[in-house]
């Protein structure tokens, strides 16, 4: 029996394509969201970052743009997934931008020892026609871990290849079988398991920073 839960997953989709243009990353997010719903009883929301006004900078509030609204959704979610294509071996500029916009929350963490993302589970979805997935995974997981996210085993699902000429239905069928689908199922299972575990048994938050000694970082020292 699938456990009942109010677990919520939020996908931050960093495709550079407009919503009317087919995005491999968006389709893989939909496949994972389907697995979340059908096999793990997890509700999902996919936010296509390109559709929102997200200004450059390192503060949460800038010029009344849409970023504070998205941060509110992140704080309300149990699972937060950064979804990105590979561009020149690295994550998309939109994913890098939201990492930069989270810098103010990181400053609060350093000052108080408390993270808005404590007891939330982090994950990554990647697609691309070139190498770079391992580098992206390292960058994003380092960021997530330092900022209080819990990282489960198998915290990413990726597909690298050429999907030129594919329709959305063809691409979704491709992602819904074989090794990619197997990895996506493991990914969804682990993300959901740890999200439920942390709801029942939250990790204690660390002490505030000892400014006299200069110690910084997440958690107790």
Report on this model:
- The protein has 221 residues and is α/β, with parallel strands linked by helices.
- The chain has a five-stranded parallel sheet with strand order 2-1-3-4-5, sandwiched between helices.
- Helix content is 41%, strand content 14%.
- The radius of gyration is 17 Å and the shape is globular.
- It has helices spanning 24-40, 67-76, 93-101, 103-112, 133-146, 168-175, 178-200; strands at 8-13, 43-48, 79-85, 121-128, 156-160.
- The chain has one domain (8-200): 3-Layer(aba) Sandwich (Rossmann fold), CATH 3.40.50.360.
- Helix 1 packs across helix 6 (168-175).
Brief rundown of the structure:
The protein is an alpha/beta fold and about 220 residues long. Residues about 215-220 have low confidence and may be disordered.
Overall domain count: 1
How big is the Rg? 17 Å
Structural class: alpha/beta
Coarse morphology: globular
The CATH architecture comes to: 3-Layer(aba) Sandwich
Bin the strand percentage: 5-15%
Distance between the termini: 41 Å
Q: Segments where pLDDT lies below 50 for 5+ residues?
A: 215-221
Residue share in helices? Answer: 40-55%
Tell me, what is the CATH class? Alpha Beta
- Give the total of beta strands: 5
Question: What is the typical, i.e. mean, pLDDT?
Answer: 91
Topology:
Blueprint: E1 8-13, H1 24-40, E2 43-48, H2 67-76, E3 79-85, H3 93-101, H4 103-112, E4 121-128, H5 133-146, E5 156-160, H6 168-175, H7 178-200
Parallel strand pairs: 1-2, 1-3, 3-4, 4-5
Helix pairs in contact: 1-6, 1-7
